[in-house]
Request: fold
Amino acid sequence: VGELTEQWIKETIAVRLARQKRLEAGELMVHALVDEAVFCRPTGSTEIMREQIERLLVDAARPNVTLQVIPFVKGPHPGLDGSFQHLRFPEKRIEDMIFVEGLLGNFLLDKAALVDHYRTVFEDLSQRFASDPDATVSWLKKLLGT
Reply:
């Protein structure tokens, strides 16, 4: 388990900002599932939370972004075990991978059986548990009071 050094934090921020620019340029396709609990746990001031939701709405309007919220009413779901990212590289000859961030560090999983398991979990969450993208946008706007 590594220490969160200033250098690591700077590099992480730089990578995430570069990824954000690629998303805004339409170079990346993103399909994000977010649990409703995220919106109930304040991270910063009310204004910061509002800005984050507004940013989600901007991103959700992009043609290369699909955003879905998993509402509390759906009860427990397979995504409660932790977050993960399914990385696909359709234009390259790199196999799909799963990126998992956790308390013990970050992991890239590339074994086909593991990737298939996570893909199945994602599809299940998206199809059976998450609100559709339009309902998600409506819900976020209602959350903002707009």
DSSP finds four helices and five strands in the chain. The CA atoms of residues 20 and 28 lie 9 Å apart. The longest strand covers residues 30-35.
